[in-house]
Amino acid sequence: MDPHPKAPPTVPLATLPLPRADARSERPAQPPAGHSTSTTERGSFCLALCTCGWRGPARRSRDLARKDATLHTAG
Length: 75
Ligand SMILES: [Zn+2]
Prior knowledge:
Layout: E1 37-42, E2 45-50, H1 62-74
Zinc ion binds at residues 35, 50, 52, 54, 72.
């Protein structure tokens, strides 16, 4: 069985709806509600970061940085 040489073409791309590019619906400038912390390393230091923009002091220990983050979210 040979494939049909005159098979109908697939749907042209032009008929598909394009995703909307609305410049006004960009993500909001405000951070999300609540605090979500994480730790990052800078060289031999570790510091805590939060989605609200807060960042803790550079610590020698990741554990201390996590404690900074915990204190931040708690207070
Ligand atoms: Zn925060």
